[in-house]
Amino acid sequence: MPEFLPFSKAVDWSTKTPLFLGREVDTYDPPIDYKDVSGLTIPSAQAGKGLAYSLDGMYMAVTTGTNSPYLYIYKRVSEGVFIKLDNPTELPPSGTNGVALSPDGTYLVVTHNTSPFITMYKRSGDTFTKLAISGTPSTAYGCEFSSDGVYLSVAHANSPYITIYKRSGDTFTKLSNPSILPNGAALGCSFSADGIYLSVASNTSPFITMYKRSGDTFTKLADPSILPDGSAKDCSFSADGVYLAVAHDVGVVTVYKRSGDTFTKLDFPVAWVATTPYPYACAFSPDGNYLAIGGQNISPTFLMFKRDGDTFSPLTSVARIFSVVYGMKFSPDSAFIAIAHNGTPYISLLKGSGELPYLQAEVIGSGYLCSLPPGTYRLTVDGALKPWEIRTEDTEVNLFPFRFNTSVKVSSYTPADQFKTQAMVVLD
Fold it and tell me: What is the residue-wise DSSP string for 111-154?
């Protein structure tokens, strides 16, 4: 059973006597640039399509074009270096589109162009074994697990356009369709981190359909007052569930801010040149500070924006020109982004330079200040476990500085002055 201790207290490890920690004084969010690195065994003459990471950052899966094996699975052996694992014994039957890994890295789903349109695998060690699952009624595209790994959404071409499964053990059971469906072929979908909201990107107005989950029932919410102005190809929630990005034709991207069940369009800078744009993918970084967009007939074809509150600013130094970008995914710590595209080397890996954001603390007053053993400490806010991790930097430190290791899908960290009253360290 984890032990919960107020973050505003220090603890003498020998006596577990609480002591006053003091006040948190500063947060630092350093600038990040992304540089090209080479750390992948590249698929042979196949366009990269979809990308997925496990939340521990150990496994990455890439779907490819029309040539077998259609799926490449990698394991991280060091920072930014991945080795290709052996192919599963049973491969997807045709060219693949989307891919998703369950948060714990146990389940891997791949969508493809021929029946049953989805293939499910279970990982044991480094081996992925095919599981039985009822397929979708048509070509499947985007797919995503909820953050607890219980729900799986799959976007596909024909009605009902979105299929939602509930997992119990190794069994995936289709849920009843929402009473109101998207109006056309669905190409992408995204869960909010709490699993309550599900967005579906489709090629027919309103182009983005929002659902709210209660138990196993997904109910359509009112459409945003301002809709995307073209066929939507992908969508992505920020990890705190506040922001939703939609990649679509014509205007390239629309970003909404959620308040309760209402999604309001934000202003977004035009940082590209486009004729008839086809933006195929968008992705928020796990720390919520960056948004990446990629596609075809836009220049550059890969862009990244930094978020500051509700303002998004283009990072021109990160922009890249690939032939066509089909997918991208940030690593769980936001330090890397992998980009799938249709030209050599088909998968590109960019590494962020600079430090991760961290919280700096200081001690006020006198008295004995204890040390915490080295290791990783999770954080709760308002009594709920949050997917943040805090790790000590040295062999043993006096409780600070703590650094945020965003190794799971997370929101931007709360301002430092809120931690003193809201947060608790969870000691396993």
Answer: EESSTT-EEEEEEETTEEEEE-----SS-EEEEEE-TTSSEEEE
The SS3 of residue 419 is: helix
End-to-end CA gap in the chain:
7
CA dist 116 and 133 (Å) reads: 9
CATH number of 33-353: 2.130.10.10
CB contact at 8 A, 61 and 71? yes
Query: What does the pLDDT look like over 228-253, one tens digit per residue?
Result: 999 999 999 998 899 999 999 998 99
**CA 250: distance to chain centroid?**
25
Most confidently predicted of 198-202, 324-328, 419-423 = 198-202
What is the rounded average pLDDT of the residues 329-355?
81
Record the tokens describing residue 145, joined without a space. 């697990």
Give CA–CA dist 119/99, Å, rounded. 10
Closest alpha carbon to 292 in 255, 256, 242: 255
Distance of alpha carbon 383 from alpha carbon 238, whole angstroms: 22
Whether residue 47 contacts residue 341, with contact meaning beta carbons closer than 8 Å, is answered with: yes
Longest dimension (CA), the chain: 69
What global pTM score does this model have? Answer: 0.76
Side-chain-side CA neighbours of 70 within 13 Å: the count stands at 22
What span, in angstroms and rounded, lies between the C-alpha atoms of 211 and 213? 7
The percent helix, strand, coil of the chain (3-state, each to 5) is 0, 50, 45
Segments making up each domain of the chain, as ranges: 3-29+356-427, 33-353
For 70, phi and psi rounded to 5 degrees?
Answer: 70, -15
C-alpha dist (Å) from residue 22 to 52, 78, 273, 375, 396: 41, 37, 51, 22, 19
Q: Which two tokens stand for residue 89?
A: 């014994």
| Integer Cα distance of 392 and 394 in angstroms | 6
Output the pLDDT for position 196: 96
Helices (H), 210-251: none
DSSP category for residue 397: B
Place of tokens 């109006």: 183
